[in-house]
Predict the structure.
Amino acid sequence: MKLKVAVIGAGVVGASIARVLSMYENFDVVLLDREPDVGWGASKANTSVIHPGHEEDPGEHPVRARLCVEGNRLWRKWVEELDIPARWPGELMLFYSEEEAQRAARYVELARLNGVPGVRMVWEEVKQIEPWVNPGAVGAVYAPTAGLVSPFEAVAAIVENAVENGVRLLAETEVRGVRVSGGEVCGVETSRGFVEADLVVNAAGLHADRVSHMAGVELDFRIKPRRGEYLLFDENVHVKPRMILHPVPTPVTKGVYAVTTVHGNLMLGPTADDLPEEEKDNLSTTEEGLSRVMEEGSRLLREVPPRDRVIRFFAGLRPEPPRGEWLIKAYDDPWGFVNVAGIRSPGLTAAPAIAGYVLELIAGEYDVRLSRKPSWNPYRVGVTSVRGKSPEEVDQLVKANPDYGAIVCRCRLVSKAEIVETVERMRRIGLERVTVDGVKFRTTAGTGWCQGQFCRWGIALIISQATGTPLHEVTVKRAGYGVGDVKVLLRGGSSC
Amino acid sequence: MLETKLDLVVVGGGPAGIAAASKACELGMKVGLVENREVLGGIPLQCVHTGFGVHVFGEDLTGPEFVYRLIDRLQRADVGLFLKSHVHSIELKAFDEKIVTVLSPKGVQRLYAKAVVFSTGARERTAFEIGVTGERPDGVYTAGEAQTLMDLYGLMPGRRVVIIGSGDVGLIMARRFALEGAEVKAVIEVLPYPGGSMRNVVSCLRDFGIPLYLSHRVVSIRGGKRVEKVVVAKVDEEMRPVPGTEFEVECDTVVVAAGLRPNVELLEKMGAALDPATGGPVVNETLETTVPGVFAAGNALVINDLVDYAVEQGERAAEGAHEFVSNRSGSVAWKRVVKGRNVRLIVPHYVSGERDVVFYARVKSPERRVFFELLGSDLKLYQQGVRPSEMIRLRAPSSAISNLGDRLVFQVRPLE
């Protein structure tokens, strides 16, 4: 008999767990998220760095250290299997004095302990390795296995593949309770009713403490939101460091990073501000935060482009557990409840490894004899895009489908064909509400220098046509007002 | 792949592009006009207010009416139209050989041309560019987006509106919302004076009882799903918010009308020099950029107040392209145009002195009772008042320019 599993939270952790569980005959997985789409929490707004694992102290956090290194290795496979935009440029942890160099040397030792390959100190040559480095840097710890992914696209791809392999996604479904009977979980109460489950995996990110309390475990466990602000520059600015740059970490944060994202934008951030526990939805940006990011960025880089080349800024919230300790545990009481909570950095990096770890935990704790699904398909292919193709290649695409020649997003060169296919895929994974933002994050349409002013409504129109939703009810970001109400004169004079 | 041989490719089918293509065709050139959308006309198509065509047609028209007049002229010329076509790249094969690669649902086309006119218009500055922090709920639009929703799609973007920026665009949008029955709570202007014309301040705000806050800034936007309110603060002389002066305005919609920037992405990629003051390319009197045979007109050249100027520039660029194509543009000892007292920007940047030139300029700060003049010449234009938001247009006869040295200094001089 199959075990029914409810995974709460379709972030990178929950999605990865769902994908890994979908490999086995033993499980019937439903993936729940309160947002209209997957990956809209901490997974979406972060540095997008896949860390090498040389910043984790195996003495303090052995599981974190192990899963980070393993996650880095697994991502290489996952981005290939799932066609996720990624690069592996390596990273430089810059130091600015001999004293700081001493502190930095510790990370080479940690790399050795954790089995991270290739980490070494570099000195004057750092400026040749990365010409954009600030001349004030005297050297760096070079970690060649660091990479970059598009984190939202990663989650979307993982979920597509998981659904293809039998996982059911329920978006806009908020968990309100965990039902326990006779010491065993039997399901979750949600905003859409009861979802039966033999196992409940709590990967609810910032809200995982609340879900844990619903199951009656870890009642003292509290997750605090730590806010990070980021600046994203126009893809046409010439400052484009090849490698990932960051300073020597402090106990609170890994510091402000400077990266050229997989989509070619210089990105600086994050700050680290601890917010009160009740502000888990506070994604406000602040002038002070952004100025700090600019300042820190200018310590890393030889040159920082002017503020007026910033095309967007945003804030992300990281879930910060007590003492920075991940809480990954399968419980006896209630039987069937699994916490994957407080997954702070390097959570994105470790996610695929965490999923494997959780699988073993479930198999061991609940005595499941795993049996692989022969039909399991590890592959997912991304939407064919016009960007990056030669005119000859685009001509071939247009011959097959004229919509490839209809450019919707001019800045990022995204065609109507890509938007239409993305909308279809969103419906296929089970999203009832196809949002303009969901299309934006999947296709990059609207993320260029004009920030969607020429294409946002064109995309809304395509969604309207594809889903039969009236244009004024198409949602940009969240439920609610949509793109606006109908004009009074179009309603045949009825009152508003 | 389809290939077409042309004399001139005009990129962008708004007023400047239509004018350039018509004029070039009238001059006997073989012209292709490339436009992203399925219709010509550009932004005026969504401008249901009047104010178009006073100079060109001697009539006060709405945007669509104005566009139809221009298209009428275009239809009498034999211009090759490339609609729903996106310029993918432009290759400079040689001094007088350009290959414009165009994507469209018909396939990829290569347009071979000797000259190119850029009339790609402008884009709006976003809330991010002007540094509005806070949350990112739905309900924040640029003025153009709001206008598109209202007047092309028939949707009402919101009911209780705060407008950032009191340029003509912001003022007209305030009135537009008020006419549609929305409550316009405030227009917020960071400068100590209105950005738009006094005529519009009266007819768009005062007549509708809409409050205008000068020397104020929207410092942050609040709201979970939809905008709930904005936080506004007074600013000091350096435009920094003054602590303690913050107040909130409840609204469901924020319209950002914070000015325009020329669309110069392709020009930049081709290596054309840009003027930081205009955001557009550096040009000579034929509106040729620093890339020979590549011209710019309309808002892609400099942000204009009047569509009539965009048309005028389109025609000038077509004339320039015609000279270039017929090999009549030899080497010239250009005179540099220099910004003197209280001049923020001026185009063109180089002139020969051999012909009449129309200059377009803006001042740095408002002044009353001044002359706008060309130093060392008799050429001067009396102005009752000048403001950065009002473009100065001055026609200089060659006689005024030719005797001067290699630097032409334009300045604003008080009457006293």
Remarks:
- Chain A has a mean pLDDT of 95.
